[in-house]
Structures are given as C-alpha cells and as structure tokens.
From TrEMBL:
Classification lineage: Bacteria, Bacillati, Bacillota, Clostridia, Natranaerobiales
Pfam families: DUF1850 (PF08905)
InterPro entries (UniProt xref): DUF1850 (IPR015001)
Organism: Natranaerobius trueperi
Domain of life: Bacteria
Name of this protein: DUF1850 domain-containing protein
C-alpha cells in the first residue's frame, strides 16, 4: 500500500516545483565573465549605465542602456562624453541627435538594441556597471571581479527569483 501512494506524491512534488519555477522567473540581467561565471544577477531594473574612462582622451564616458523586458534586449539610448576625441564617430542623423549640456556632449536617440553586450575590461578604462531601478542604484566595479583584458558579458535573460533574497545580488 505504501508503494502506491509514493507515485502520486512524487507527481505532486514535481508539478509544484515546475509551477514555482515558472512563476518565480523574472526578466533580468546576468553579468558574466569570460569563463561564464556569474558576477552579478539583477532583477527589476530600468537602466544600465556603463561608465569608463576614454582610453585616448582620458575623459569620462557614460553609455546608457534601457532594459526592454518584452524583447529581452538592452537598448543603447544615450552616450555622454566630456570631449569629442579619438574614436567618436558621428554623422548628423546616423545615430541620433548630438547636443551639449553643461560642457558635456550628449548623443541621444541612438536606439541600438543588443541581445548581449560584450566588452573587455580595461585597466585604463576602469569600467563600472551601474544598475538602476526606481528604488535603488547598484554599482559594480569590474576591477574587483575581472582582470584586465578579460571579457565581460551583460545578458538579458529570465532569472529564477526564488534563490534571490534581494533585488540585486552581487555575490
């Protein structure tokens, strides 16, 4: 008799696990290193800022991405530069609108989607990733996680929320 009751209990447990998994998945980001190890997982976000120092001009740059949860993409929406130096390729109308504000050059309306944002960490650039939502802001200093020259990927993906106790997890 005991053997007969185990199968329905096992089926119930499996159905419960699958249901909880599906309900607990949320759109988010995983930031991974070149080995595929997860550096940070984030749910509930609005924007991602990639801050770095321009390698030639040695001036600050901010690339701003919005998170499109429906398409599961990061959309490069704006870029802010202290100077228009080497590597800044811009033709009026090609990438958006170039304006100046408070001594900074702002390229708005870029609207370039990325399924995965991939770059290499540079010691001179000293990249930082800033995750923003309406309630909080989290800064990830990549120098604490990867060595110069290592590849970093920011991937929009569904994240199982159940093991995440906080909205931003940077183990």
């Amino acid at each position: 008799m005991f053997v007969r009751t185990r199968k329905p209990i096992l089926a119930f447990v499996l159905i419960a696990i699958v249901t909880i998994s599906l309900i607990s998945r949320s759109p988010g980001l995983k930031i991974v290193d070149q080995q595929g190890d997860i550096l940070v997982q984030v749910i509930r976000l609005d924007k991602v800022l990639l801050k770095y120092t321009h390698s030639a001009m040695k001036t600050p740059v901010e690339d701003i991405y919005t998170f499109d949860q429906e398409e599961m993409k990061l959309v490069h929406s704006k870029s802010v530069h202290k100077s228009l130096g080497a590597g800044f390729e811009f033709k009026s109308g090609d990438l958006g609108e170039l304006t100046t504000e408070n001594g900074r050059f702002i390229l708005k309306g870029i609207n370039k989607p990325f399924e995965v944002l991939t770059f290499r960490y540079g010691e001179t650039a000293d990249q930082k990733i800033i995750i923003k939502d309406s309630d909080e802001k989290k800064t990830i200093n990549l120098s604490e996680h990867v060595a110069p020259g290592e590849q970093v990927k920011i991937k929009p993906t569904y994240i199982w929320r159940f093991p995440l106790e906080r909205r931003v997890n940077s183990e």
